[in-house]
Amino acid sequence: MLRHFLKLIWKRKSRNMMLSLEILLAFLVVFAIAAFGLRYWQLFQLPTGHGWKNQWSVSIRAAQDLPNDPVIFENIRRSLRDLPEVESVAFSSFGTYEMSRWTEEYVLPDGSQQLTVDGMGVSDDYFATMDMQIAQGRFFSKMDDNADAAPTVINRRLADKWFAGKNPIGQVFVVKKRDNTQGQRYRVVGVVEQFRSHGELMDPVYFMLPRWIPGVGDQAANNIMIKVKPGTPRMFETRLNARLKQIRNDWNFVITPQSDARASMLKTQTMPLVILSVIAAFLLVMVAFGLFGVLWQNTTRRIPEIGLRRALGANAGDIYRQIISEQFLLSSGAMLIALALLVQLPLTGVFGDDLNWGVFFGATLLSATVIYLLSLLCSLYPGWRAARLSPTQALHYE
Questions:
Q1: What is the sign of the dihedral through the CA atoms of 111, 115, 119 and 124?
Q2: What mean pLDDT value characterizes the chain?
């Protein structure tokens, strides 16, 4: 039976070519959306490495560059800690769930294994404030004062890349300058499993959290991270802003609960997927109309053939199954051609982890399900109409 169906499809190859191309393009579009969504689902399952439920971020806005004055930052820390709602206060280069990003080139001391690493300078209290857990080693503290290299905490991804098979604690790496000379030295004191500053949908990257000390260096911390007590109301923002204004009235402070920042970031990151899904839905509707019209026309042209089959003893169910089976075979052929092209992407690693094998197989399954369902829906009525014809009507149809 399968051989017979394939022979029928091949005899009508000129008519089926455009139909197959339409199905192929629809499969590619659905595959892209499915892969996009599955990758987001994969990322969402990974831990971010930091808390957000009881954390608030305060971005400091000043007319000029912030001075790295230890007195100012100590006043901010003590003043905010006096508020009954505040459990801890820390400082960082920028806040989590923001689009800010700082990257630099680093190498090992011998100049090998150059990597682009994301970084964010943080104070000693940052890890406790953000509910972070150490996986190996320790977090830096005052015991690292006057160290021969700047203490830093790195994520597991970076530790495995640079120090595979070694204990990363105590290892040193350096900044690679544009003139190929080596700059600031960093010593690893701790490793965290994960840290994704942009939240749940950020791709895992090499990340480091070097120690920032008030008054050391020229760079000031532009962000205050606060851990508040559970159940702190949003109206606390007014009191918090008033307290900060008492310290520096010439600065502006943008206060954002991390729960709000997380929701805003997720909305921003998923917006492209929503837009593409709407476009794909319209495209699938157009494909469905085109597919239905072509199937209707093909079935009408084959009424004499259907009548002959009915006269030879085929029942209505046989005709129904023939129409649907031929459409499924046509869809399968188009999808196999598409998959022969798409499988090159994970094989060559063009999109890296964004299109790993898990995403590829999942997107293939979802896309094939959508196309088969679409083919079934579009072939139901033409098949039903053909199955209702009596042999006498079909043989005398003109």
A1: negative
A2: 84
Look at residue 143 and give its three-state secondary structure: helix
Overall average pLDDT of the 299-304 stretch = 58
Q: Give the ranges where the chain is alpha helix by DSSP (H).
A: 2-11, 13-45, 70-81, 126-129, 156-162, 236-247, 258-301, 303-311, 316-342, 344-348, 357-388, 391-395
Q: In whole angstroms, what is the distance from residue 46 CA to residue 49 CA?
A: 9
d(CA 120, CA 264): 21
How far from 89 is each of 12, 127, 145, CA to CA, in Å?
Answer: 73, 10, 20
**DSSP one-letter code for 210:** E
Rounded Cα distance, 23 and 334, in Å: 6
3-state secondary structure of 67: coil
Higher confidence at residue 105 or residue 7? 105
User: How do beta strands 115-119 and 103-107 pair?
Assistant: antiparallel
Is the pTM for the entire model greater than 0.70?
yes
Kind and range of the H or E run holding 141: none
| CB 117 within 8 Å of CB 101 | no
Residue among 167, 161, 216 at smallest CA distance from 190: 167
Q: Are 227 and 86 in contact (CB under 8 A)?
A: yes
